[in-house]
Specification:
The complex is a heterodimer. Chain A is mostly helical. Chain A has a domain at 42-119: Nitrile hydratase, beta subunit (Cyclin A, domain 1, Orthogonal Bundle). Chain A is built from 6 helices and no strands. The longest helix of chain B is centred in the middle third of the chain and has 4 residues, at 48-51. The N and C termini of chain B lie far apart (32 Å). Chain B is 8% helix and 35% strand. Chain B has a domain at 1-64: SH3 type barrels (Roll). The chains are: A mainly alpha, B mainly beta. The A-B interface holds A 1-2, 4-5, 7-8, 12, 15, 19-22, 25, 27-28, 62, 64-65, 67-68, 71, 97-98 and B 20, 23-25, 28-31, 48, 51-54, 73-76.
C-alpha cells in the first residue's frame, strides 16, 4: 500500500476510534475482492426477507429504521453476522422499539421453540 | 408533502459539511468536507435521519446527485484524472463553495 494511502487509512481508523466515524460507514477502507458469484439463500433467509416486506406493507417498519438498527450493532457483531442475521437482529429491535413485541413475549416464544426442537 | 426549497442549481460548486452528529446519517464519512459540483436535483424526500427514528421527516429535503473528482478523494487514485464519483446527498449537508 502506498504511503499516502496508508496515512489516509490510518486517519480513517482513528476517526472510528475517536467515535467520529461509525463502524458501518467504511467506504474507502481496504476491503479485499468482491465475491461476484450468485448466492443460494437458505429457507430462513427467504423468510426474513418476506417478514421485512410484510412488516413494511403494514407500516410497522421502515427501511430507514432497519438501517439505523443495523448500524447500532456492536462492531464485532456487525462484522461477524451474515447479511440476513443483521436484518433479523434489526427487525427484532425495531419491533421492540415500536411496541409490536415485548422482550418477555419474544423470550418465552424462543424458549418454547428451543424446547420443541430439543424434543425432536 | 411540505418540502424545503432547493438552494442549488446544476453546475453549482458545493462543499459537504464536515460534521459527525450522532444518529442515522446517510452522508458517507469519506465524502464529508469534500468539494464537488451539483450534477442534478433528484427531488425532495422525507429526511431519512428522522425516518430512522419513526418520525415523519418533513419538510422533505431536496436530494442532489453531487459529482466529485476521484483524484481529489483518494490520495493514491491511479485512474484517469477525469474520473468522477457521484454521491446522492441531502441539501442540509451541503454549503456553497467557490
Amino acid at each position: 500500500m502506498p504511503l499516502a494511502r496508508r496515512a489516509a487509512v490510518a486517519d480513517n481508523m482513528a476517526a472510528e476510534e475517536s467515535g467520529m466515524r461509525q463502524h458501518h460507514d467504511m467506504g474507502g477502507l481496504p476491503a479485499g475482492p468482491v465475491a461476484r458469484q450468485e448466492h443460494d439463500y437458505a429457507l430462513w433467509e427467504k423468510r426474513v426477507d418476506a417478514l421485512m416486506v410484510l412488516l413494511a406493507e403494514r407500516q410497522l417498519l421502515r427501511v430507514d429504521q432497519l438501517r439505523r438498527n443495523i448500524e447500532a450493532l456492536a462492531p464485532d457483531a456487525y462484522d461477524k453476522m451474515s447479511y440476513y442475521e443483521r436484518w433479523i437482529a434489526a427487525i427484532t429491535l425495531t419491533l421492540l422499539q415500536r411496541g409490536v413485541l415485548t422482550s418477555d413475549e419474544l423470550g418465552r416464544a424462543m424458549a418454547e421453540i428451543e424446547a420443541r426442537e430439543a424434543r425432536q | 408533502m411540505s418540502a424545503v426549497e432547493p438552494r442549488f442549481a446544476p453546475g453549482a460548486r458545493v462543499r459537504v459539511r464536515r460534521a459527525d452528529p450522532p444518529g442515522h446519517i446517510r452522508t458517507p464519512w469519506y465524502i464529508r468536507g469534500q468539494t464537488g459540483e451539483i450534477e442534478r436535483l433528484c427531488g425532495a424526500f422525507p429526511n431519512p435521519e428522522e425516518l430512522a427514528y419513526n418520525r415523519p421527516g418533513l419538510p422533505a429535503q431536496p436530494l442532489y446527485r453531487v459529482r466529485f473528482r476521484q483524484r481529489e478523494l483518494w490520495p493514491d487514485y491511479a485512474g484517469p484524472a477525469a474520473d468522477t464519483i457521484e454521491v446522492e446527498i441531502y441539501q442540509h449537508w451541503l454549503e456553497p463553495a467557490r
